[in-house]
Every structure is written in C-alpha cells, then in structure tokens.
C-alpha cells in the first residue's frame, strides 16, 4: 500500500516600504528606502514570524531590508532577478499628476487595461506576468514544504496573486490594492491530486 505524500508551503509576500523621492512610477529606477520606508518594513515584521528562506528582488528598495533581516535572523537569502518591478518606460521617475497633466487618457487606460495600453516604451504586461510566473513556479518547486518570505514590488505581488486567483491580465493592476509594506500569505498544498494554491491573507 502506497502512502500519500502531502506537503504544505507558505509564502509571505511583502511589498517594499516607501522609497526615497516620494511617490512616482519607479519601475527599474533603483531608489533606496526612505526612513519612513524602513519604519514601515520593520513594523510589518513581528518576532512571531518564522521563515526558512528569504527571496528578494535585486532592486535596492527590497534587497537592503531583505539582507538586513536575513543577517539578523540567520536565514538564507536568494536574489531573484525575475522579481524586479515592471519597467515603466517613459513614465519612470514621473508622478501620476505629471502624466495626467500631459496625457490623462494614457494613465486611465493603463489602469483599466494594461495589456492593451502599456506605458509608452515600457515592458509589456504579458511579458512581465510571464517572467514573474516563471519565478513563482520555480520557488514553489525549490522551497517545497518551507516557509518563505518574498520581498518584492506592488506589480510583482499583483502578478503572483493574479496567477493564484486566476485574475485576467487586463484586470491585474486594478483588481488589487497593494500599499507599501503590504503583506499577502499564500498557502500551497501538494498532493497526489496536484498543486493547489490559495490566498490566505492580504493587507497590512
């Protein structure tokens, strides 16, 4: 008689805190966290939190906090380049207000349907989702049975949750609010019936 083999993996996704320079379309622009951003991240983590592994975007606003936490708690740390934020092209470094002043319809269309109306010169949503999904699949295999903290970006979290919850790419940006230092917990169960993932918690 064969024994069934079930494993459960937990992923805690956390968005970076406020970066230096204030709100803007940052994308691949590599700003560090502000003092407020550090406070937000430290407040979002508790002594009760326990992880076996930390995975981080290579961008400084994620990596610096992930590195500090990994050193403090002696947890293995992996940088995952596929978890960097979407590249916003011509919008990088600009605020919503400045884009609205120039091309208001462009921003409105992007939020309602980013697939059809990507940022000018930016990364296509379909390609962004594909690279995030490939990282997500990889770490589900790599970290089976462990508790994993993923330090990443608002866009990345939206893509992972879109995969878990089968949200179409057209709705992926507008369907979820992901503020600074927002945490999401995903439970992944694997059995002889396959892999089942569900969102257990989302918010601050």
UniProtKB/TrEMBL annotation:
InterPro entries: His_Pase_superF_clade-1 (IPR013078), His_PPase_superfam (IPR029033), PGM_Phosphatase (IPR050275). It comes from the Bacteria. This is Alpha-ribazole phosphatase family protein. It comes from Marinobacter iranensis.
